[in-house]
Design goal:
296 residues; mainly alpha; Na+/H+ antiporter like fold; 0% strand; globular
């Protein structure tokens, strides 16, 4: 467990490289990705204490952050960039409306933030994403992709709502809760690595055939992630350093697994490849982030 926690990012990077070697699972890939993501989120619910205080403490600042970071900024960014490139405008939109990663509270604790605040952002952004992602994507991305709000809604119900409902009776059993809590990092790694391997293997022909496109996507993904981390950090400059670090992590460490899932199901070709490449950037960004926050 200590090995996984210490080399979590490196192991996920290795998963992406493995995806370039193993054969594709074909049409079953989206199903495997959905199940893996649902498994990760299912395990993460056992780490959350659903009490009144967990929702009411820092409620005002949490909701303001959610509204600005997951609604206002994504929509404004899309409307701005669609005049430059409709493809990259859609990429930016999806990157910004993805909820906070299930691992963000852990990163907040490691990087000197406030895990409890990060947990609230995770809860709000994840559950509200069930409504916001289908609505925003169907309204703004209709001309760029053949998607329907009800299809995305169903996918989010499978990956976010259903795992929550299933976990409720199981969390009453101390043995189950203890095992999932003890090995949560392992379960998260298994789920994320499965998503990364399956998605990469499915598109490895296009990835290998167009290395210049992969390099270009990696550059744009890096710029987008830097923008997301900076947005979270400077969104409320009057807040304490711990709060700003928390918002930076909650903003930049998004649920990339959900992004891969959505693009695998509803987008063809380059859009899914972009989010596969973004997986690598998502992992690599965690390395300098720790050093930056330690020095700050």
């Amino acid at each position: 467990m200590s090995f996984i926690q210490r080399y979590f990012g490196l192991l996920l990077l290795l998963s992406c490289l493995i995806g370039l070697i193993v054969p594709s699972t074909g049409d079953s890939a989206p199903v495997i990705v959905i199940i893996s993501l649902a498994f990760i989120i299912f395990c993460s619910y056992f780490q959350i204490n659903f009490t009144t205080s967990s929702f009411t403490t820092d409620l005002g600042i949490s909701l303001k952050f959610w509204l600005l970071r997951y609604i206002v900024i994504p929509v404004a960014s899309f409307l701005l960039f669609k005049w430059i490139s409709e493809f990259y405008a859609l990429v930016i939109l999806l990157c910004f409306i993805l909820p906070s990663a299930v691992s963000s509270p852990s990163f907040s604790a490691i990087y000197g933030g406030k895990p409890a605040l990060s947990l609230k952002v995770l809860i709000y952004s994840s559950f509200m994403a069930v409504l916001t992602i289908p609505f925003i994507m169907s309204r703004l991305a209709g001309s760029s992709a053949t998607i329907k709000a009800d299809q995305i809604l169903l996918t989010l119900i499978y990956t976010i709502v259903l795992p929550f409902i299933i976990h409720l009776p199981l969390r009453k059993f101390r043995a189950i809760k203890g095992i999932i809590g003890k090995y949560n990092a392992l379960f998260t790694f298994i789920g994320l690595s499965t998503i990364f391997i399956i998605a990469t293997a499915r598109n490895k022909t296009a990835i290998i055939a167009r290395p210049e496109l992969v390099g270009l996507f990696a550059l744009y993904a890096l710029l987008i992630y830097v923008a997301m981390y900076l947005t979270g950090y400077y969104l409320f400059p009057s807040q304490s350093l711990a709060v700003r670090r928390t918002f930076s992590i909650s903003s930049g460490a998004n649920n990339i697994g959900l992004g891969v899932t959505i693009t695998a199901l509803f987008f063809q070709g380059e859009m899914n490849i972009f989010f596969i490449v973004s997986q690598l950037i998502w992992v690599l960004m965690l390395v300098p982030l720790r050093r930056i926050f330690v020095r700050a």
